[in-house]
Design a protein that fits this description.
Elements lengths: L7 H19 L4 H24 L5 H24 L5 H23 L8 H19 L2 E2 L2 E2 H31 L1
Antiparallel strand pairs: 1-2
Helix pairs in contact: 1-2, 1-3, 2-3, 2-5, 3-4, 3-5, 4-6, 5-6
């Protein structure tokens, strides 16, 4: 583990956190600009993980901040999408509840010195959530494809994967606390 706390990956995570309030202020009144901000923040999520692994710059701060930044971004976007009537409230509630439960469990095991890595289903969930949120914010027809409709289908799939990956994580959790 790298001892230098503020490195490129952690700086990208901090940038994502800084973008969230701007996104929250802009997206409700200008969803397309919100989509742009959400895209930039989502790219920082991919890049911070890529750089942390490639350059072996994984830090304790990054381990804590990265999932918090991801969850704040997704939760903020879901609340905005409910507010502008592009996502049913129950979907946002299910995803937010899952994120809350998993975050609490993750910090609990982390406090005991155990890191449970993200499963493939959890990573797929994050990618699907980010793509669906982006499409739902854009909500335009491009080349005969209604991005809103595609976003709706993907958010339902992401919700299903959120629940199943959350169950996987809880099973993992129970194995590690015994």
């Amino acid at each position: 583990m790298n001892t230098k706390t503020l490195n490129l990956p952690t700086s990208l995570t901090i940038l994502r956190i800084i973008l969230i309030p701007v996104f929250i202020m802009e997206a409700p009144t200008n969803p397309q600009f919100g989509a742009f901000l959400f895209f930039i923040a989502s790219v920082t999520d991919f890049l911070d993980g890529y750089f942390a692994r490639k350059f072996k710059q994984i830090t304790n701060l990054g381990i804590i901040l990265d999932p918090i930044a991801d969850k704040l971004l997704v939760i903020s976007a879901l609340i905005i999408l409910v507010d502008i009537a592009r996502v049913p409230a129950w979907i946002a509630i299910v995803i937010i509840l899952r994120e809350f439960i998993i975050t609490v469990l993750r910090f609990y095991v982390l406090s005991r010195g155990v890191v449970i890595p993200a499963e493939k289903a959890g990573k797929a969930k994050t990618v699907l959530q980010m793509i669906s949120i982006l499409l739902l914010l854009i909500a335009e027809e491009i080349y005969g494809v209604d991005l809103y409709d595609v976003g709706v289908v993907l958010i339902y799939i992401a919700t299903f994967i959120s629940v199943t990956s959350g169950i996987q994580y809880i099973v993992h959790f129970w194995r590690h606390i015994k």
